[in-house]
Design brief:
308 residues; alpha/beta; Rossmann fold; two-stranded parallel sheet; 10 helices; 37% helix; 17% strand; globular
Amino acid sequence: MKYHKIILAGGSGQLGKALADHYKDVAEQVIILSRTSHADNENIKTLVWDGRMSGPWAKELEGADLLINLCGKNVNCRYTKQNREEIIRSRVEPTRLLGKVIDGLINPPKLWINAASATIYRHAEDRPQDEETGEIGYGFSIDVCKKWENTFFDIPTPHTRKVALRISIVLSHNEGAFPRLVNLVKTGMGGHQGDGQQYVSWVHEQDVVKCTEWLLQHPEMKGVINCTAPNPLKNTDLMKQLRHACGIPFGLPAPAWMLEIGAALIGTETELILKSRWVVPKRLLDAGFQFQFAKAEHAIKDILSISI
């Protein structure tokens, strides 16, 4: 085994499952910190925590090779006062708690990767946003990102390297944006959304997984890192590729006013669809990281092959 112990905080979602599935074959032990209990699965063990208070789980961080924190309420909801508070709290509190626990360990994790979001950058249709020249945006979702990252970096961990991984829209076969977009395509509603000119930054789930291990093996990498495929594309082109992959020749477009109505009905925000996210992974590319799925058409075909 290459690694002794991998910790996944908030690791019961789709990305957490993919990470656990990967690391169980290369680590002696994978420990998931979750709000709900699950039976052990081979060398994957789930420990219950609430993300707010320390407990018996804390000692398991001792001697870990890697800690990945994925905690955070899904932003696919209406931004009511209650939801806004929960979105922030569910990110900030577990991050602060993990930092406090790490501070008290004799042999803390070698690397702490905290999930962050590529939506921290401004709406960009003029040029791509990278870690060095990208401009931070404004609004609620950006405020969430800033508070999350500030909490993470404000915690001193002299013996634990830290990476804030700014992840774009993750394409996976049974959760998140991809199955919803495929359903739109299959029902004939798979045209562009809004004017279709907004950029979509995306990343294949397996490239996120691969990136975490690559970072573990490259101790010179720390700080903010964009985790997004190197070839973002416009919404109209993404929908065209989805229609082609699904064998659907046409798709009705959804203008912004229609999206506003639809978002209200299903309990989400149009920002998630209409904001132009043109984010590129400059630091990963400069350091030699190789994406398995650099182009959307290849990622789409791969995920659809899993779904069938």
